[in-house]
Structure formats: C-alpha cells, structure tokens
TrEMBL record:
Protein name: Prepilin-type N-terminal cleavage/methylation domain containing protein
Domain of life: Bacteria
Organism lineage: Bacteria, Pseudomonadati, Pseudomonadota, Gammaproteobacteria, Cellvibrionales
Keyword annotations: Membrane, Transmembrane, Transmembrane helix
Transmembrane segments: 12-35
Length: 354
C-alpha cells in the first residue's frame, strides 16, 4: 500500500504583512466608527438634555406667570390703591385699597412680599463673571384655599384641612370684597391646631368677619371668607451655582456655565443655564405693544404689565463637541407668557372716574 506524504508549508512573511495591513485597515475603520458614534451620542444626549430642561423650566414659569396677580375673586390690579392711566407720565389717581400688604419687614415697594407689585424683577444681577435677570411674581394659591369657619381674637383663623399651611410662611384671608396678606405665627402649627394664627405685627390692624367679609349674617359671612396658603406669596426665579457645582467646589461662571442653575425660590429647577433674560410688556387699548427690561420700569409701568417675555439659553452640561469648537452644546428659547389676571384696562375711563 502506497502512502503519499504531502509536504506542509507555513505562512510566509508576505502573507503575515498583508494580513496585518488588512486587519489594521479594518481596525482603523472600527475605531473611527466608534469615535464618530461616541461624538454623535454625546451630541444627541446633550440636545435631549437641553430640550427636556427647557420644557420643564418654561412649564414652571408658565404656571407661575399665568397666576401673577391672582387674589381670589379679583386681581391685585383691581385692588391696587392707585389706578394708573398713563404709563409715560406716571399719572395716577388714588382709590380705596381693597387689600393689605405685609407690613413690618415687607412694607416698602419692591420688597419680596410687597403685594402692591404683582410682578417685578431685577436686570443683570451679577453671578460670578456672568449677569442674569431675576423675576418675581406674587399670587394667592388656589389649590390651598380653605373655607373659614371662625375667627377668634382677630388673629386666629379657623378652617379644616390646613396641611399646606406652615408657620413663618405667607398666607392670606379674603373674599370677593377684599384680601389681607399676613405671616403665619412662628408658634402656630396649623395642621395640629386647626387654625392659622396671624403673626404679631404682620398686619396693620385686626381682621374681623363683620368688616372684612361681604354679606350679612354670621352664617353667610363665615361661608364667603377663605384662607389661602401653601404656595401663596412671592415666587422668585433667579440663577445661582448648582448643587453639583457646590459639591465639586465649582461655581457658576463664564468658564463653567454648566454649573449655573435656575432656581425657584430655594429649589433648583434645572442646571446648565448660560443666559436668562426677562422683559415686561403690556398692550394698551389702542393695541400698541410695549416691552421693557426691569431697569427701564417705573411704578406705572409695573402696574400695566400683562405679559412677560423670557429668553433663556440652555447648555448640554456634559461635553458635547460642536462645529464651532465649543465644549458645550447650547440652544436659546424664548416665550411670552400672558398673565391671566392682568387684562388690559381702559385707563382713559379710569382717568375720567368712569
């Protein structure tokens, strides 16, 4: 039996070099594809973060701005102690006030809880090496409205379900005839006590059912008065260093705008704010539209405001390379919000006393 023995040969140097060249070419393509995919993923993720932050921030702004000036059955504008009829000359006539603002530390115009201004703000507030606007709106919280059952001693307001009422916070009592703002006493626990106590000195006078509630008869007077709390008071939107920035020892600045955060009072809403600008506008009875920044406003102009325009630039927070070489992706959004409680008024009729 013949056995054929085949001669075996190994892989030559040329084959190895060719195989390596092909492998490196394929590997380079894979690496390039991975790098491109990573950059695209960061860009998509950054764009999604910007869009979500903008959606959330503007939705909260819309909720508050729409309620600005809400004071129960009437708006703060209708209860204002002066009725303006010329935004240019600051002309006005005094009317009988139908509300009391907080006194003591909040009596001066422009103070946080001065309800003679239902909307206000500051222009170009310094934050690190950047400047941002701030916005403050004031209103009663309808979701925390409770019917008053009794008032004792002129400073204890009884009602049921006072879970949202906390000591030291701003509250209000009123009906369709007037409203009074006050501070809840620091020793009062409304949820436990069953009543809201007006802090000493937070009102210039005592509140009584007979003089401050409409209607006649004890039962009717008790039924038409309400106490408002929870979110009642001043809501201020401002920019500061984010919680993440504080944790890392970083601060909001032009070199690190990813650590700039939009705050609603003391609560951080979103981070990654590169710009926040606010303008205040109104439309007169002739249809002319006005818009001014906070530093161009005066008493009459604040009174006329019935819309707020907000422009904000959001960044991707995380690195997301852009075509211009910037480390962060950015996008600017602008919206105008109408204040539902500040409808245009015929000021010529007010001036004529009609």
């Amino acid at each position: 039996m013949n056995t054929t023995i085949f001669k075996q040969r190994g892989i030559g140097l040329v084959e190895i070099l060719v195989s390596m060249a092909i492998g490196l070419f394929i590997l380079a393509g894979v690496v390039q594809l991975y790098a491109t995919s990573t950059v695209n993923a960061k860009t998509v993720s950054g764009a999604a973060a910007i869009q979500e932050n903008a959606r959330f921030a503007f939705s909260r702004l819309e909720q508050d701005i729409k309620q600005a000036g809400y004071a129960g059955c009437f708006s703060l504008k209708s209860a204002y102690p002066r009725q303006y009829f010329s935004e240019a000359a600051d002309d006005y006539m005094d009317v009988v006030p139908r509300y009391d603002q907080l006194v003591t530390t909040n009596a001066a115009a422009g103070e946080e809880n001065d309800f003679s201004m239902f909307v206000s703000g500051e222009n170009d507030v310094d934050v690190g090496s950047l400047a941002f606007d701030s916005l403050t709106v004031r209103y009663l919280s309808a979701k925390s409205r409770r019917a008053v059952t009794a008032i004792t001693g002129g400073n204890q307001i009884y009602a049921s379900g006072l879970t949202d009422f906390k000591s030291g916070e701003v509250a209000a009592i009123g009906d369709c005839s007037r409203v009074s703002f006050f501070e809840i006493g620091n020793t009062n626990s409304p949820e436990v006590d069953g009543y809201v106590e007006i802090a000493s000195g937070s009102l210039g006078r005592q509140y009584t059912m007979a003089s401050d509630s409409s209607g006649t008869g004890t039962a009717l007077e008790s039924a038409v008065a309400y106490v408002y709390g929870g979110d009642t008071g001043a809501i201020t939107y401002s920019i500061g260093t984010s919680a993440a920035g504080n944790a890392l020892g970083e601060s909001c600045s032009s070199s690190s705008p990813q650590y700039c955060a939009l705050r609603r009072n003391n609560d951080e809403l979103v981070e990654g704010i590169s710009a926040f600008d606010v303008e205040y506008g109104w439309q007169d009875v002739d249809g002319k539209l006005y818009f001014h920044t906070a530093d161009a406003m005066n008493a009459a102009r604040w009174f006329f405001v019935d819309r707020v325009r907000v422009s904000a630039t959001f960044n991707s927070i995380e690195s997301a390379p852009t075509n211009d070489g910037s480390p962060l992706l950015t996008k600017t959004y602008a919206r105008t919000f109408l204040m539902q409680n500040q409808l245009p008024v015929d000021y010529s009729r007010l001036a004529a006393g009609l």
